[in-house]
Amino acid sequence: MPTIHDFTAKTIDGKTRALADYRGKVLLVVNVASHCGFTPQYQGLEALYEKYRAQGLVVLGFPCNQFGAQEPGSEPEIAAFCERNYGVTFPLFAKIDVNGAGAHPLYRYLTSSAPGLLGSESIKWNFTKFLVDRKGNVVKRYAPNAAPADLAQDIEKALAA
Q: What are the E-state strand segments in 20-101?
C-alpha cells in the first residue's frame, strides 16, 4: 500500500525532492496561494512549523493556481512573497495542479486517502490541509477555512504516536 513517502515533487527552486526524505516526520501538506482570502493562514502555518518543528512537524506548501487564478506568479515570485509577507521558512514546492487530469500524483494519493465532504476526492479551494503521520499515512483532511491553530491538538497527537 503506498504512502506519501513513495512520491517526489519539485521544490520551489526546481530541485526534485523525494518525500521519503521526510520519513519519520509528521507532515502537514497544504495547497497554497498568494492572492486568496485564506492567504493570511501562511502566518498560522509558519507558527505551527516553528512551534512543533523540533518535535518532528514539517509543513509542506504546494502553490496552486487552479482556484480563481489566485497563484499567478512564478516560483521565485511566490517564494519572495511568502518570505517577505509571512516569514515562511517551511518547505515550498513548485506550482502544481491538485485536481483534474493534470493533478500531481501526490494529490491524487492524498485525496483518495482522505476524501472530503460527502466522499468527494476533489480539492474545493486553496489551503485544504492534510495531516500525515510519521509512517507516511494520511490521518486527516481539513477544509480551507480550518485555522492552522485549530489543528494543534491533532498535530500533538500525531507527534506523540
A: 26-32, 57-63
For residues 134 and 5, the answer to whether their CB atoms sit within 8 Å is no
Number of Cα atoms under 13 Å in the Cβ half of residue 36: 28
Q: What is the pLDDT of residues 108-152, one digit of tens each?
A: 999 998 877 666 778 999 999 999 999 999 999 999 999 999 999
Residue with cell 493570511: 40
In eight-state DSSP terms, residue 50 is: H
Instruction: Give the span between the Cα atoms of 73 and 25, in whole angstroms.
Output: 30
Count the neighbouring beta carbons within 10 Å of the beta carbon of residue 25. Answer: 18
Give the catalytic positions in this structure. 36
CB 16 within 8 A of CB 8: yes
**CA distance from start to end of the chain:** 20
Name all domains of the chain by residue range, CATH numbers in brackets.
4-160 (3.40.30.10)
pLDDT in tens, 54-95: 999 999 999 999 999 999 999 999 999 999 999 999 999 999
